[in-house]
Every structure is written in structure tokens, then in C-alpha cells.
TrEMBL record:
Protein's name according to its UniProt entry: Protein kinase domain-containing protein
Domain of life: Eukaryota
Amino acid sequence: MDAYSLGCILIEIAEWTPLRKIIKKRIDTSISVDVKLNNLALLSQSMHGRYITEGVAAFRLGAASMKMLVLCIPAGDKMPDLADFNSALEDMAACDI
């Protein structure tokens, strides 16, 4: 879950907007509506499609952050290897900002 949270933060940075606003674009979160669990599951697929498959994150964040995002918000039930996280973290640390 920590990796998924990091992915959500990277998406917030890419969009330059809070995650709650990103979610509201895709899911009705008004008080009178019960948010269904399968809608939340579709949110992850939607974020993967927009930010990874369509390349929005690569354009806005750069290659190193995109590599980390791919690991944090995987497609389906795919679980990345810890070595991949270490490699992505080294790439992010090497970035000069």
C-alpha cells in the first residue's frame, strides 16, 4: 500500500492538483452517494491507463519518476520486485532538480 500511495503522490505532482480533485473527475463522491468498491478498483485502472499507458506522467514528470510510477501503480495484480524499486529509486536520486 505504501508504494501505491507514492504513486498517488506522483500523480498529484504530474497534475499539480490534489488527488481528491482527480478522483472527483472519475467517481461521484457526494455525501448522498455510496461509493462502491468496484468503482475504487476501476480508479486504479483508470490512473494506470491515463498516466502510464497514455504517457501523461512521462511527459510531465520525466523518465525517472515515470519508472517509479509504473512500479507503484501496476497493471492488474502484477507485483513488482524490490530490486526494481531500488533501481527506480537510484534513478530518481540521480536527477538534478
